[in-house]
Amino acid sequence: MNQSISSTWATNFQDQLRGTWAHQIYNGVRKAKRALLRQSEGEAILLARYHRVQGKPLNMKAPKTFTEKLFWRMISWNRSVNPIFTRLTDKYSVRTHVADAIGSQYLIKLLWYGETPQTIPFERLPAHYVMKPSHSSQRVIVVRGQTKRTDLMASASGWLNSNYYWSAREYQYYQIKPGIMIEECLEHSDGSLPLDYKIWCFNGAPEIIQVINHTRDMSSFFDTRWTLLDLSNKEGRAQPLIAKPANLEEMIAVASRLSVGFGFIHVDLYNVNGRVYFGELTFTPTAGHMKLQPDSWDAALGEKWDLSLEHRPPAGRG
Questions:
Q1: Which site in 15, 104, 214, 218 is 20 to 30 Å from 184, CA atoms measured?
Q2: For each of the chain's 318 residues, which pLDDT tens digit applies?
Q3: Residue 86 contacts by C-beta under 8 Å, 6 or more apart in sequence?
């Protein structure tokens, strides 16, 4: 029996079993095996990713550069992670933390949250809104005008049936309860979507500000005085000089308050019509799929990251 025939036979056999007790047992065994091997396979995948992206093996015993410390965090968390990082990564539960820390005025208006797409109150939603899962990253649907409800519900169902951990092995996502959020759509007065300001903070101090657009084909880095930096984390993206936000000091103050107690975090904010909005907290940006250029930035940012803070819960959050 050749490979093609064997594969077809196996697929047909599984189709015949689907819905039976035997298929349920098969799925149960497969899930148990996946969970059992999760940690070891996850570590191997992360080590291989670092080697592929950086062109050298990872120094887990004495990480010095930013990317070494980033992968050190991901591998350490893949073994065991403080539940606080799961709560702060969850886009729904983090709202409570943000409201307590800096005030609810920085939150984007939440129009609906639930776990059953069929109960989304489409008839009560505005013409423009944003739908996204609470338990993953970079999965967003911006609804502006007529969109098929069945398509939106299908997307939501797909999100709910997936665990984002398996896409890049970021363990802080593993235990998040799946949910669907519908938020107000932030727009400038001309109808354009806002820029995303990712403020990289080390030990509670904002250091650099990355600005990307909705299509993610632009990525400029600035220092806190708004000087354009010769830093990039992905080739092929435009790095334009954009206007300094009038309320930059407020954005920096917000990021500082939200980053206290963490060796590294980037606080994602929006700035729309002179008002600052919270986006999310990111602990493992791009899941390590980045190469900082020039190399000197990897070393410089690594020096700013105090790994001793990784061994104890952030003050007041444990």
A1: 218
A2: 444 454 455 556 556 666 676 656 655 556 656 666 899 999 999 999 999 999 999 999 999 999 999 999 999 999 988 999 999 999 999 999 999 999 999 999 999 999 999 999 999 999 999 999 999 998 999 999 888 999 999 999 999 999 999 999 999 999 999 999 999 999 999 999 999 999 999 999 999 999 999 888 899 999 999 999 999 998 888 899 999 999 999 999 999 999 999 999 999 999 999 999 999 999 999 999 999 999 999 999 999 999 988 765 555 454
A3: 172, 173, 174, 175, 176
pTM, two decimal places: 0.87
Q: How far, in Å, are 169, 176, 292 from residue 30 at the CA level?
A: 18, 21, 38
Tokens 């019509």 appear where? 273
Backbone angles phi, psi at 46, to 5 degrees: -65, -40
Strands 128-133 and 110-114: unpaired
Residue 299: alpha-carbon gap to chain centroid: 24
Q: Residues 88, 226: one domain?
A: yes
Domain boundary among 139, 161, 185: 185
268 and 137 assigned to the same domain: no
Q: Which of 119, 153, 185 is the last residue of a domain?
A: 185
- Domain at 232, CATH number: 3.30.470.20
Number of Cβ within a 10 Å radius of residue 307: 16
Domain extent for 137? 109-185
Distance CA 78, CA 41 (A): 10
Q: What's the total number of domains in the chain?
A: 2
Locate 113 and state its tokens. 């949250």
